[in-house]
Amino acid sequence: MLGPDLCTRPRGGRSRGAALTFVFATVLATAAATNCLPCEEERTREPHPVTRASGSSSTVDREELARAATEAMADGKSAAKAAEEVVSRSGDRWGAVYDRREYEEFAQALDGAYTGVGLSARRDAAGGVEVARVQRGGPADAAGLRPGDRIRTIDGRAVRGRSVSEVVALLRGDAGTGRAAGAGSPVVLGLERGTRAWTRTLHRARLATEDVTVHRLDDGTPRLVRIEVSAFTKGTGARVRQAVRDAPEGAGLLLDLRGNSGGLVSEAVAAASAFLDGGLVATYDVHGEERALYAEPGGATDRPLVALVDGGTMSAAELLAGALQDRGRAVTVGTRTFGKGSVQMPSRLPDGSVAELTVGHYRTPAGRGVDGRGITPDVTARERAEERARTVLSGLGPAS
What we know:
Distance between the termini: 41 Å
Mean pLDDT: 80
Order of helices and strands: EEHHEHEEEHEEHEEEEEHEHEEEHEEEEH
Shape: globular
Structural class: alpha+beta
Low-confidence stretches: 1-58
Helix content: 10-25%
């Protein structure tokens, strides 16, 4: 039986590697720190090709995919590349093909863990790359790295001029093979902090993702709790529910979904259950058959709630934001979300590679389509969004 799990990561065109989009109605996990998390295919049932449920009517013929892959193999060529050409011609915006190693590697991280050094990177104001966050207890933390440290080189390769995704691939140890280096492998970073420059060798480790972070705001007074959710991996929903239960009595809640690139839809539904007393979260279609996702009863419906969103809020995170907005449970603040609401399912090719094909879309409780549209927040805030969200939350009154 197909489950309501969505694997999503936006891509520019059909690029591969650090930016990947994976599978709806199977099992997913998304980006975290210095790695990409995985997707596991539905092993008991493969989809038949269908027309997109909305938007452009592009259809991918699975038999044509298999034929192209088989012919390429017979000619000594790459089956995955041949399948990619078929998917590209189809016009399926989110269609993609992954080779066996990529797909199996992603599946191994389904439990919300990754191999890396425990830091996330971002572009700095000068066009270089700096450390955005350091994971507590990871190799980067043990080496004394801090947010704001500039990364000059990785294993002797200059970072300037490279995209953040390329930097992530170097941190993972992916030298174009599609496979990251294992735990214990060394990586040498050239770093800068102020006028100080130094080199440090780190050893990659197997780390749990930190997809839920809780902050008490208002200078220590227990009036406002910010729950930041960076991805929906296994257990995220339970951690959100626990954060809500642990919030001090009378505290308002700020659910920060900015930069959340999606994840397991089942976990987004579990997170919705922290704020709703049952009821509809979303509908979605597979092969023209509509299905529904419901929250569990017993959520904290009496606490004031504001959800922060932006252009990096995608897929399963958009599903959650849309549900809270449509159900009148939260005021959404920020900027329009990304707009990834399509359903993908995998098809195994003769060489073991996997083609991911669009088969439908999901909709919010009010029937709004998200794909290509995104979620428009109730309150637009392009700058100082968190400050604006806190103002809105204060106006909602204390929890009763």
